[in-house]
Amino acid sequence: MKLVLAHDQATEETLVPLWEASNAWDRHRLAEIEEEKQGRTYTTDDENWHLRNTLDAVRLRAPQVLRAVGDVASVPRTADEALIRTGLDEALIRTGLVERVVRLGAGVPLYTGPGPTRAELLAAAGVPEEQPQAGE
How far is CA 55 from CA 86, 90, 96, in A? Predict the structure, then answer.
């Protein structure tokens, strides 16, 4: 019985936070995709989603941010653990890294990869862009 309880505790402490963070990101991203398909911008009050997007947008401009994003993306640790591991928690307090991340992220599109817009892609494929129907 001790083994079962120890396994349960280890799972709760180690795997559940990773799953919860991944699941939250998935829910937001799917909602964002649905909004974009309708020609709308996804909005949410979830500060973690906004922070993760800002960190993602500036990851190539700040090495510490890149390391933290890499740790989270490869799933060895949660975002909180990655920030602690890379020293970002202390840097956030002492060096104003939050302000730097926000400044670097201002006006930077989240998805910065090269490529056509949805309208350009549909036009190139010869597909008329669908307009949202009333009530959708």
Answer: 14, 16, 14
